[in-house]
Amino acid sequence: PSVSVSPPVTQSQRGYSVTYTSTEVCVLRGSTVDITSSYSYPGSVNRRVTTVQESFWFIKESNGVYVDLRSDPDYSGRVEYLNEDRKSTLRIRDLRESDSAEYKFRFVTNQDGGKFTGDPGVTLSVRDPQLQIDVRRSVGQFSTWTQLTCHSSCQLSDHFSYVWYKNGQRAGGKNYLHFDNISPTDSFDCTIEGHEQIRSPPVCESINLFYFNLKRKIVSVKIHPPGQIMEGSSVTLTCSSDANPAANYTWYKENTVISTEQNFTITNVTTEHGGNYQCEVQNRVGRQNTTKHLVVRLLKRFLCSVVLGVADDKDPNFPVSVYLCCRKAQREVS
């Protein structure tokens, strides 16, 4: 039950080739790993039928001398070859950290120069799980949920089963837990079945801290200047939060992102700027949002005209009459 983290790779030369199903494998200490290769060679050379005389895996080589893993004392009793037609699988049991190395497959035929090694080989990493728990939390108007996901330093195959503990009691067997409600007193940790001696650090403080904060509205929006927003003026919307850890801010208008800053400023306001503005606050343990409605009021407009009186021709000192006539524009508020 190994884990492939890279695509198959073929090494070839003059009709001889070795293909590894993966060139990088990560497994847990104490487990078993299978490393597989397939190989090919010419069916015949100069009318001489090709046969394989020897095939083996190795990690040690010096001056053309290769040490078959089956004869390596470091692997005594732990190595097995599973050979089929033009395919070889190396199985190593009871893996140790010292087994971390580059493993290569070599085969030798009856042809002159008919020897080939798949080089580079397969890099095996043996390690402890180094488990961590990722916390995701979503808070909405109608629903709130929390999801805990267990991660290993090795990308594990389906062969491995995760084990969850809630307040010290076994709670589940998937790599994640999902809750609609979670208590501020709960503590969680995870491990891998068969490796229960190694557990993740427990998570409780980050969940609890965010849980308590969510009991009150932790996101607020203020508009400056306060009061009526007049057409042609400037306005700043400020989003505030007491989220812990520190959060990132995103502003939306009609479901479109308009800013990723804490403050959003509009200059030369028009009626088109009116509407709902939503601020979303998000950190590694959750998210929350709030909406503010912005109303833009039009300036009162007047249409005015000037009317001049007629002077008295007989009296040059008679003043001219001036009249100012005004009426309101049709629209006042938007």
TrEMBL record:
InterPro entries according to UniProt: Ig-like_dom, Ig-like_dom_sf, Ig-like_fold, Ig_sub, Ig_sub2
Ig-like domain mapped to chain residues: 120-193, 201-295
Protein's name in the database: Ig-like domain-containing protein
